[in-house]
Design brief:
single chain; 226 residues; alpha+beta; Alpha-Beta Plaits; five-stranded antiparallel β-sheet
């Protein structure tokens, strides 16, 4: 009985070794840069970390499909290096010894990438699934709604336009008033010095003092009485 059990375990081990190997079907390579990400606070990659990784992948598979019965033992790791890199596959024990299609594993990893990163205190750049494209970080929402920002900008432009029109109108009115005053001053000065009679400019007469015509003045001197 013991021999049969050992033989069965060896068969499963050989089968698992064939499933999880570099470039195997539905296998994915993972590379971690723990030292780069955490510096002096970097942790050692050991059996406990491997168990956590298997648990996170199983969690991702179960969360991706509500009917999934993936267990931690269904996640296989192989070719683990000190640098830290390794390959993994997810098996489907319900159908003898086969692997879950890579498309499903990829979708599950992408869906739960942030949770996996957080578990290892890493990011998409320091926890790399080489055949799985990095997920985009969620867009940063502004503290103020976009429509309110646009409304504020438009309102400022309208207020600035109104102020500009008012200031321009006041300056134009002042300029017109100044020109009108200067014109009136020039007209008053011209009327006080020179008048025109039949188109011929003449000096204005001083009605109080009178004005002596030169021709008649000469006649008066010639015919003065004795």
């Amino acid at each position: 009985m013991l021999q049969v059990l050992l033989l069965t375990l060896s068969v499963f081990a050989i089968a698992h070794a064939e499933l999880c190997k570099p470039d195997a079907q539905n296998a994915f390579k993972v590379r971690l840069s723990i030292k780069t990400a955490l510096g002096d606070n970097a942790y050692a990659w050991d059996a406990n970390e491997e168990y956590l990784f298997k648990a996170m992948v199983a969690f991702a598979m179960r969360r991706y499909s509500s009917k999934s019965t993936t267990q931690i033992s269904d996640v296989l790791l192989c070719n683990v290096t000190d640098r830290v890199s390794f390959w993994f596959v997810v098996t489907d024990s319900s159908q003898n010894v086969t692997t879950v299609p890579g498309s499903e594993v990829e979708a599950a990893i992408r869906m739960n990438r942030n949770r996996i990163n957080s578990a290892f205190l890493l990011s998409d750049k320091t926890l790399q699934f080489l055949k799985i494209t990095s997920t985009l970080s969620p867009p940063v929402e502004p503290s103020m709604p976009v429509w309110l920002i646009v409304f504020g900008v438009v309102l400022c432009l309208i207020v600035a336009g109104i102020v500009f029109l008012v200031v321009a109108g006041i300056q134009q009115r002042k300029k017109k008033n100044k020109e009108s005053t200067e014109r009136e001053n020039l007209e008053e000065k011209g009327e006080a010095t020179v008048t025109a009679e039949n188109g011929i400019p003449c000096e204005a007469l001083d009605l109080k003092a009178g004005h002596i015509n030169g021709i008649f003045a000469a006649d008066d001197e010639r015919f003065t009485s004795l």
